[in-house]
Amino acid sequence: MIIEGFYVDEKGEKAYGQIEFNSKIKKISKNITKTPDIKIPKDSVIFPGFIDLHVHAREDSSKKWNYKEDYETAGNAAINGGITAFMDMPNTPVPAVDLLSLNSKKKLSEKSKIDVYLYAGIGDNTKPIKGQGFYKVFMTKSVGELYFKNYDSLEKQLKKYRNHVISFHCEDAEIIEKDPSRPKEAEIKAIGKAIELTKKYNLKANICHVSTKQGLKLIEEAKKSKLKLTCEATPHHLFFDKGNVKNFVNSRLIKMNPPIRDREDRLYLINGLKNGSIDFLATDHAPHTLEEKQKDNPSGVPHLDTYGNFVSWLAKENRFSLKRIMEITSLNPAKFLGINQRIIKKGYTASFTVLNLNKKTTIEKSMLKTKCKWSPFEGYTFPGDVVMTIVKGKCFEL
Asked: What is the mean pLDDT of residues 11-17?
């Protein structure tokens, strides 16, 4: 196959040419000599395939939550949003905490049309799993029963995981017990503790869904000491704040852990994602049915379908460079996973996201592939849309 158009090259610069590929990139030519199989619209750009490091696909051996989402529908929603691989979290009814439960999830994840990488969970009686590279810690209760009630029990467990890759859900359990609104202080204190434990046990740590200005400042300061530390931000914490959320169709349903913060926090996060303080754009895709959200409103919102639309908002409305988009959506996540780096270069994996940056798109239910069939962005018009997702040489036109 040959695709022709503007693309982001390995240096993050915009170039025009033809990319010849099967499952890998065979040749890149700036001299147009062949008739392409695919010629993309003039306002479109070919990016290395997007990777989402934070997804709750909901499926496990119990199948209790399959009605919310499963690996097949999560994969379809991801492709719809331009995502070519994702990482799945362990906090389902049967959490992935040992070799048996982890292997069970791996088998189930094969239903997805794209690669799924799995986190194993850390709980009160877990231990490292041979061959497993990534672990998740919930420092307080969120969704599911895999969490710690205090720092003493958490540290007791983390001693076993020296030198491992640990992603932290940072909220302080004691503060939340006193104040269920999950105030900023809960995140800030927990981030401080995660940084302390990272130093103490030589962890390679990732701080999930940063939502506060002060929390990010702690991370920025810690990075100066050369800690093995990364962090991620979500579309909802970058887009919504306490002042603007009321303007949206599903405003009452825009509830998650940690919650939406103030405008000052949101703008600081956008700047951090742009300047390199934040390493990844990760969705925290957390599907619940519309009926559940309208009744009990459990925490979490879906995002896979709208990932590419949101990237266009960063590029057009917030002036993120193409290079920076590549870094936060593909290059940095690929480095985190330790996989063939997602750059457009001969010999590399032929996974691409084709994004039309000027195709204005209003989000409607009918365009969603997620099983829960709703979006916090319904009714909002983004500046761009995903034209095509190519996964290891296989093309999905949208």
From this structure: 96
